[in-house]
């Protein structure tokens, strides 16, 4: 039995979500972002559904990670395509938290009509690539020098998962 619970994210979770996001930013292998957003900016860039947090079970309920979806486009043709974000606190990695969060996102995404999930992952982030592949994502290809992080060009690996139930 896991030592954590995965539940819908609430705005009151923001400070802990932000803390874990800061850990990811600090690695320089999780995101192109270099500064933490405000709640309003983060909230506006993510779907209002398909947001989860993992917290320790029991008293205290320390936050262990979070996951959310962002729309890839405002065009109607892409209404069923979303980008995945999964962040696990440094001291919670290797406990299955990422897998539980991504599984919850996949289930909820299909419930709301998402047919394709995608993720752009730095090649150096082997744990994230492995996580996505273990949850049914396939590698589409490498986007070479897709963006700069500071003054360094970075590649990303584009991964996607096609729903087995939506859009078939």
Secondary structure topology:
Elements: E1 4-8, H1 14-27, H2 39-45, E2 51-56, E3 63-71, E4 81-88, H3 97-111, E5 116-121, H4 126-134, E6 138-149, E7 152-162
Parallel strand pairs: 4-5
Antiparallel strand pairs: 1-2, 2-3, 3-4, 5-7, 6-7
Task: Describe the model.
With 168 residues, the protein is an alpha+beta fold. It has one domain (4-162): Aminopeptidase, CATH 3.40.630.30. Helices cover 27% and strands 34% of the residues. The protein has four helices and seven strands. The chain has helices at 14-27, 39-45, 97-111, 126-134, and strands spanning 4-8, 51-56, 63-71, 81-88, 116-121, 138-149, 152-162. It has a seven-stranded mixed sheet with strand order 1-2-3-4-5-7-6. It is globular.
């Amino acid at each position: 039995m896991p030592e954590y619970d995965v539940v819908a994210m609430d705005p009151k979770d923001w400070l802990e979500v932000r803390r874990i996001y800061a850990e990811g930013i600090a690695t320089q292998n999780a995101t192109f972002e270099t500064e933490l957003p405000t709640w309003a900016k983060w909230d506006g860039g993510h779907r209002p559904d398909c947001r989860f947090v993992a917290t320790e079970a029991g008293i205290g309920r320390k936050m262990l990670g979070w996951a959310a979806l962002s729309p890839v486009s405002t065009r109607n043709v892409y209404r069923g395509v979303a980008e995945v974000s999964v962040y696990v606190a440094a001291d919670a990695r290797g406990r299955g938290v990422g897998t539980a969060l991504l599984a919850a996102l996949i289930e909820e995404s299909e419930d709301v009509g998402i047919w394709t999930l995608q993720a752009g992952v730095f090649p150096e982030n082997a744990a994230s690539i492995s996580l996505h592949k273990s949850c049914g994502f396939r590698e589409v290809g490498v986007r070479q020098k897709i963006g700069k992080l500071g003054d360094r060009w970075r590649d990303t690996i584009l991964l996607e998962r096609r729903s087995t139930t939506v859009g078939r």
